[in-house]
Design the sequence.
């Protein structure tokens, strides 16, 4: 005896079908909706299934697709019996059905059912692709309108950017829109009729059930955050269906991306705040170093080489240089150390920097793989060399017993999807990667490595400034730095620097000597220690020096006799009138004025902007007497 399952929410239809099928010798089981069918098919295997299309709790089309994908139902025949066949085109073959019969007068409809059953039993030739029984009924205009409204609502639900689900009182899922399927990552046939609670972690179930209980009492539950079992974070809003108290609509928003962006923003803001503090400290410290360097230079100029204090003074200069290197790392993190940008070849820089490092660390083997004809980049060479050295040292420290560093360069074209996370522009970049086979990092450490003063080393073994400085240097060049690491499996730092169309100019180094002159120079700085030492150094070099303590005073002095002053050396950070504002006002007096900008740091690219407006040169504190003499002459000697 063949088994038949009849699915229809009309009890009259179920009774008539059961009576006639049993009279013809079939075993009949009935179900009123799709949800009941899927529960039934867990233990019952029919030979033939008759399905109506318009039903609650999973409609006939979805049910047909789900049944056809079930391995246990591969051999079962599926027949659609629906009045909808007279109102709109039905692609029943695409849904997996074997035949389709239009509902009409029962006696004629039954003839079509028996006709199909005979062919399914193999007693007659095969079933045609046509819909049987259409000639016995007439389309109804009002039904067409209702179907149009239903289809319109379906299109709207499919287009909504939020996930929409409908669940029963027993938390069984009976509807999902495409966005919900995307968020959950589960095929529709596996999701429908499954338990909504199974989508969540067990720890969140008490909160979820509390929301469901309130919704069953007719209370809307506004957004609460939950973690899905698939790892995504979602915001749920639960709304009761007023006329169907056993149902509830759930709006699901994927907030994983938003959470990630918020986390990245907080990290960026934290680094920005720390960078501002670091830059301020470096600026003030460089001013103090300038005073020490200047006084030491003056004493060395006066002292005979045989004087017993000469060696001590040279040692002081060495200490100042070391301290200056430390503040340069702080400035690098604060993105205030990029001053002399020129086209450069990263292959050459990577090769020379790695060779210099390799000579001091014999236990490390550096393997090089450089792309031929690597694109040009516009960089501050000293800053990038410092960044690479910091990464070499970081790799060496990760391999206390020695190991291998793999250094590679290559041309890369980055698309929008890659650069979006790093808040950079898509386009051509040169990638420099440094890989070690050291101890690696866990996720918690990896997220903090670019914070200044964060270090995993013991007290007294390091400042924690190296990677922070590298981060700031790369960012100040408009670049990207990315890290891949796993505990026990080494680390890879990848630097991406924007490519340039400019050609590389080869420079000639001039001999180290003191350049003197006789011109008049106006020194503008609010720090007395700077003006005092600058005056003495410049006067020692033969120049006539005038002093201004702020921008307003500088303007007053310059306006009195512009032709008398040949050069202005001006601090960038001053109260009342900043260096940039003072420069602009001085140019209104003399558009061809010669100005050297001097500062302990360049916060947020202010120095670069002033340079673009016509400032002749930049001098970073602390500077030596030779650096000052060379810079002054280079500006004065240009007509």
Sequence:
């Amino acid at each position: 005896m063949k088994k038949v399952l009849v699915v229809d929410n009309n009890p009259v239809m179920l009774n008539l079908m059961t009576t006639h099928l049993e009279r013809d010798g079939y075993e009949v089981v009935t179900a009123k909706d799709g949800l009941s069918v899927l529960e039934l098919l867990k233990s019952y295997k029919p030979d033939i299934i008759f399905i109506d299309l318009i039903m609650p709790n999973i409609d006939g089309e979805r049910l047909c697709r789900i049944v056809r994908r079930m391995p246990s139902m591969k051999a079962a025949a599926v027949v659609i019996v629906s009045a909808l066949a007279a109102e709109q085109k039905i692609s029943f073959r695409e849904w997996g059905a074997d035949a389709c019969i239009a509902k009409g007068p029962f006696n004629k409809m039954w003839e079509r059912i028996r006709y199909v059953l005979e062919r399914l039993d193999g007693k007659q030739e095969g079933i045609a692709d046509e819909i049987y029984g259409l000639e016995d009924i007439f389309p109804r205009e009002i039904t067409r309108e209702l179907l149009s409204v239903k289809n319109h609502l379906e299109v709207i639900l499919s287009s909504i950017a939020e996930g929409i689900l409908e669940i029963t009182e027993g938390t069984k899922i009976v509807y999902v829109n495409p966005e919900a399927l995307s968020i959950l990552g589960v095929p529709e046939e596996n999701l429908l009729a499954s338990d909504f609670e199974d989508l969540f972690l067990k720890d969140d179930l008490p909160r979820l059930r509390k929301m469901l209980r309130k919704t069953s009492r007719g209370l809307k539950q506004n957004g609460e955050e939950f973690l899905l079992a698939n790892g995504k974070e979602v915001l749920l809003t639960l709304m009761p269906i007023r006329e169907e108290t056993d149902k509830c609509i759930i709006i699901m928003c994927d907030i994983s991306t938003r959470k990630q962006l918020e986390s990245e923003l907080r990290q960026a803001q934290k680094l920005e705040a720390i960078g501002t503090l670091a830059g301020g400290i470096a600026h003030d410290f460089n001013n103090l170093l300038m005073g020490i360097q200047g006084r030491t230079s003056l004493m060395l100029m006066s002292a005979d080489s045989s004087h017993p204090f000469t060696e001590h003074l040279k040692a002081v200069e060495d200490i100042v240089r070391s301290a200056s290197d430390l503040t340069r790392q702080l400035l690098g993190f604060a993105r205030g150390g990029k001053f002399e940008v020129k086209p450069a070849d990263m292959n050459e820089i990577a090769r020379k920097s790695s060779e210099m490092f390799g000579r001091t660390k014999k236990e490390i083997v550096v393997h090089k793989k450089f792309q031929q004809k690597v694109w040009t980049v516009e960089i501050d060479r000293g800053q990038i060399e410092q960044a690479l050295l910091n990464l070499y040292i970081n790799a060496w420290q990760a391999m206390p017993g020695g190991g291998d560093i793999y250094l590679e360069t290559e041309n890369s074209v980055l698309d929008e999807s890659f650069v979006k996370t790093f808040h950079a522009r898509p386009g051509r970049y040169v990638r420099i990667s440094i890989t070690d086979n050291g101890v690696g990092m866990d996720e918690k450490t990896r997220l903090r490595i670019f914070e200044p003063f964060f270090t995993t080393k013991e007290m007294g073994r390091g400042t924690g400034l190296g990677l922070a400085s590298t981060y700031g240097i790369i960012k100040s060049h408009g670049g990207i730095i990315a890290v891949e690491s796993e505990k026990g499996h080494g680390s890879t730092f990848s630097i991406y620097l924007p490519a340039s169309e400019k050609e590389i100019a080869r420079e000639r180094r001039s001999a180290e000597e003191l350049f003197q002159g006789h011109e008049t120079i106006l020194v503008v700085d609010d720090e007395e220690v700077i003006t005092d030492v600058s005056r003495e150094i410049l006067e020692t070099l033969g120049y006539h020096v005038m002093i201004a303590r702020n921008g307003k005073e500088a303007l007053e002095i310059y306006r009195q006799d512009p032709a008398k002053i040949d050069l202005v050396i001006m601090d960038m950070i001053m109260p009342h009138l900043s260096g940039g504002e003072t420069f602009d006002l001085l140019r209104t007096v003399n558009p061809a004025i010669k100005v050297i900008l001097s500062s302990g740091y360049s916060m947020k690219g202010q120095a670069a902007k002033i340079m673009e407006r016509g400032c002749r040169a930049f001098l970073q504190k602390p500077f030596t007497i030779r650096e000052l003499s060379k810079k002054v002459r280079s500006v004065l000697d240009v007509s």
The first strand starts at residue 3 and ends at 7. The CA atoms of residues 382 and 454 lie 24 Å apart. Confidence is low (pLDDT under 50) at residues 458-464.
